[in-house]
């Protein structure tokens, strides 16, 4: 019997199941947008479509023959959601935690005038906003079956009230086998390589962030790949050993 595409990917990466994963930065604030799929030619999920990502996203979808089945939002800040409505169109749903649902009403309204002016200068037009037609509120520990993927929702407030991380029991295809990674976590602005998301913005809470790091992040296996909201990917093993914000916390 011929091996399936999924089995072939799994064999190339040892015992870890793999997914197609493409990452690229938005046009502002260095926000990472992710496209995740079971393989080329399949449905996919888009995570955190930020400012000015539409053309790059179209190119990625065309290159890999992918069809968006859902848009996942790690939280409601403008730099992570700005392109959600054009990406969703009128049929694809946007998934966001209920505590951050209010942020989709008009995230532009909370921007400082200087930031609005910067965006207008960079993109040649004033920032505007239209809420997605279909919004699904997610909850902690919920399991989403989307695009052939099982995605776990982990509520980790602190950066915002409704910040979440999205977990998969697969890793991106092509990772070095010696990394011995078995799981992927899209962390949004909860955890970065060597840092964490800021808590001094509206809805931020330093105590809640410490609890999230202690109760949600630290229990994750060392073999977890972390795809961050800004900056390079990392691993829980690396962050447990080197991230100063995790020191002194006990899971």
UniProtKB/TrEMBL annotation:
Domain Metallo-beta-lactamase: 30-230
Cited InterPro entries: MBL_Glyoxalase_II, Metallo-B-lactamas, RibonucZ/Hydroxyglut_hydro
Highest taxon, organism lineage: Bacteria
Cofactor(s) the protein requires to work: Zn(2+)
Keywords: Hydrolase, Metal-binding, Zinc
Pfam family, one: Lactamase_B
PANTHER family hit by this protein: HYDROXYACYLGLUTATHIONE HYDROLASE GLOC (PTHR46233:SF3)
Name of the protein in question: MBL fold metallo-hydrolase
Native species: Fodinibacter luteus
